[in-house]
Write a structure and sequence with these properties.
about 10% strand, alpha+beta, single chain, about 600 residues
Length: about 600
Amino acid sequence: MARIPEDTLQQVLHATDIVDLVGRYVKLRRVGTNWRGLCPFHNEKTPSFYVNPQRSSYHCFGCGAGGTAIRFLMEHDGLQFMDAVKRLADAAGIPIHEEIWDANAERAAKIRNAILRVHSELTEWFHHLLLNDPSAKEARSYLKSRGINRETATNWKMGYAPATGDAFKQWAAEKKYTENLLVHAGILARGDADSRQPNQTYPRFRHRLMFPIRNDFSEVIAFSGRLLDNNAKAAKYLNSPETVIFNKSRILFGLDKSKRAIIKAGRAIVCEGQIDLITAFEHGIENVVAPLGTAFTEFHARVLKRHAEEVVLCFDSDSAGFKAAQRAYVILAPVGLIVKAVSLPNGEDPDSLIRTQGVEALRSTLNAAKDFIDHAIDHAFASRDLTDTREKTRFSAEMAPLIRQLDNAIARDAAIQNLAIRLGIPEADYRRQVARAAKSAANNDTTGNGGSGQAAANPLPTQERNAALLCRYALSDTKILNWLRSTGKASILNDIPGTELLALIWNNDADLADTARLSLFLTTLQREEESALSQLLSQPMPGGQLAEAQHALELIEIERLKILYQRAHSQLKQPNLDPTRISSLNQDIVTLRKEYLDRLAQLPKIPPSTAQ
């Protein structure tokens, strides 16, 4: 397999600001020397997730997740170790020179990098065509009709995909991209057995306005193409297929640009399309995102929850728009987001509203957003005859499972009360109806943990108190670490449970009191070891005094004598022991007891330090 040299790993970790990295996904607030936020790996209401910039590590006291910047990317974005390191290295401008151990792993890495390069260079080519090529005249006219100027098209790297494949084939030939690579990248499609030219390839995007789709690091990983020929029998919007770099259920269009505005506002505005989002963003409403023509997923909900407390659904006001908003609400509400919705004027979307009435019209509409339950009631009164008893009964039954989705009990009670008042039904009866809906959902829920996506590792056993303290002393002072390793007593840990972390530190040759070397060391550990050591690092480091460390080691040695004494006693109770074994065990018990008591008596009555 491919291997990244240790000095390169150290450079990458040193160049990565872990607070900045985690802050792209989690809303962090400074707490003393650390930063705190809601854990991105499990649902929580009280922040228990801490980032330690001095140690370049993170730890969640709720679920146990923890580690370095590399581990964070692996767990958060589902990356392999090599891909996480390369992403951080690219962001820091550090070249990666791998040591090759496995030809298959090297081949996979090369394919992934090649696909990223294809998307990057194709974005530039599409963009050049849009701005300069006569064949893109219709695309430029369309943008003009939507009020999008050259500057906006450049800001978003919009492009044009030619109507025929000749120009594309010429471009690919000049770049020396193979047909097989372009198929893997989702740029070329291959005809099926029933087509006129089975197994022949053709450009997936033809005569379309192109929107690059980017990941959180602004890398182009896919495209969305808007059809320019309204008479063509094809989908109005076409997205890239899923590839090794693109999973549409995990991407929100525009989030790479809008993330910081969303965090600052504590609110995300969700539009239906790319044009709506771009128009709003370019007019100063920057806290906007859009799904890629697919239903919201739980991953989308968790991403938004990490950045905001409230989501405003800004969908079309027709029946299809309401149903889309309702589907989004069912996904967003259970993760604890406040979900609101707006009522756009009939026939308007965010883009058209800004173009016809100005951006302030959209701002006013957004400011008037109502909680989704209120929005749904308003929509029902406008579109259904709720004076009819049967229609009223049907609607109240439809709303019960939606109300139970509310994560907050106060909000749930308010929604029940509001709906009961507006429909003129007894509140107590409706409260029971919502409770039945919740019970029915619980009986049908077979998801186990609810798909929370926790990334917590299976924790190590609880670490022995003095062993954990000695770890902290050793990691705070190189002199103490060197003294510990010079004692030649590491083997005593084999007899003491809960000393796994101390053994890892003791038996390593690196200067782990140095932050850079410690970060590199963390990358070599198993997931549960990295998590446990990150938890240790999240605690304040004691002032490193050799006498205190020596006292801690003395207590560990005494604990070992106690364990060996108890173990000998237990062995003596085993049946069918021969006389020689009994005699040996009795002798061990006497010796161990005497040494234990002697060492205990020699301890200072007051420990050199009370540091914990």
